[in-house]
Specification:
The chain is an alpha+beta fold. It has 8 helices and 15 strands. The longest helix is centred in the last third of the chain and has 19 residues. About 4% of the residues have low confidence.
Length: 314
């Protein structure tokens, strides 16, 4: 494990340990510095210190840095098992178009074949178990997401998300047709009181969540919606649409099983279609679009045929 050995100068006297480390290019952000401190990988004056420790002039600081990320054989195998399309890439970030069925990062029940492993050595920043991941998509949600290539860029993009400066737009086919052509679902969500594997508005620890929707196409038994996230809670779109009794078609966890079976869906009809933000380094305005995948195009065709049949009274 590489080590960073420093000595606080006269101008550093009184500086918080985490702020001092964040200024080093090898670390880059206060969040990264705090993770190292909390993991016991930083010593100041020969002792592990708290992040708020004030440095003394001449005090030695030793940091055990993360090992360089190399693609191990298992990760190379994971890359082969995690298909994806790179829409854009530069020295700072990657825009990925993820197909349905690919898990973004390792977690419960999925240790290999993830997008993180497919991008090993090219992504960085954030928690070590999910390097570069700024926001995620569910396994069976397809479409666009941004991945950072350094700790400072990860921090900048995460901050832009918190400030709601990243525009994320989705397309969903839902059961039934909402009463309003457009609207906002403003309902805090959190882990469901009865089923901890679900997210819902019935939670003991709800967090603010807002989803904007607009009907793109009203059909006989379904509606094609354009959705824009203002916040980005886990399963937010799926939980919000279930809360207004228009679950995503093909989403068995949130009430869309019947429509999925009727339309021949093998996953939820939810796609991350547009992504836009200012580049954290160049400040250039970036915008990306992902067309509806072929499986969802086919399902939409069946829903339209169903609607035409209903109109004829078949």
């Amino acid at each position: 494990m590489p080590r960073l050995e420093l000595t606080a100068g006269t101008d550093d006297a009184g500086t918080r340990l985490d702020a001092y480390l964040a200024a080093r290019p090898e670390i880059g952000t206060r969040a990264a510095a705090q993770r190292l401190i909390e993991a016991g990988r930083v010593k100041a004056g020969g002792r592990a210190r708290l992040k708020r420790h004030g440095l003394r002039a001449g005090e030695d600081v030793v940091v055990e840095l993360d090992d360089p990320v190399d693609a191990a054989p298992s990760e190379i195998a994971g890359a082969a098992a995690a298909p994806h399309t790179v829409v854009f890439e530069d020295d700072h970030l990657i825009i990925v178009d993820k197909p349905a069925g690919v898990v973004v990062h390792p977690g419960h029940g999925q240790s290999h074949g993830t997008l993180v492993q497919a991008l090993a050595g090219r992504a960085a920043g954030g928690p070590p178990d999910r390097p570069g991941i700024v926001h995620r998509l569910d396994r069976d949600t397809s479409g666009l997401l941004v991945v950072a290539r350094s700790e400072p860029v990860h921090a900048a993009l995460s901050d832009a998300l918190r400030r709601r400066e990243v525009r994320r737009e989705y397309v969903a086919l839902v059961e039934g047709v909402p009463d309003a052509r457009s609207g906002t679902i403003d309902a805090p969500v959190g882990r469901d009181r009865s089923d901890r594997t679900l997210v819902s508005t019935s939670s003991d620890r709800p967090r603010n969540a807002r989803t904007h929707f607009e009907i793109r196409e009203a059909l006989a038994r379904a509606a094609l919606l354009a959705l824009r996230l203002e916040t980005g809670r886990t399963h937010q779109i799926r939980a919000h649409l279930a809360a207004i009794e228009h679950p995503v078609c093909g989403d068995p966890r949130y009430g869309g099983r019947a429509s999925g079976e009727r339309l021949g869906l093998e996953r939820q009809f939810l796609h991350s279609a547009r992504l836009g933000f200012a580049h954290p380094i160049t400040k250039e305005k970036l915008g990306f679009e992902s067309p509806l995948p072929s499986d969802l195009v086919a399902v939409l065709g069946r829903a339209r045929a169903e609607s035409r049949s209903a109109a004829r009274g078949d």
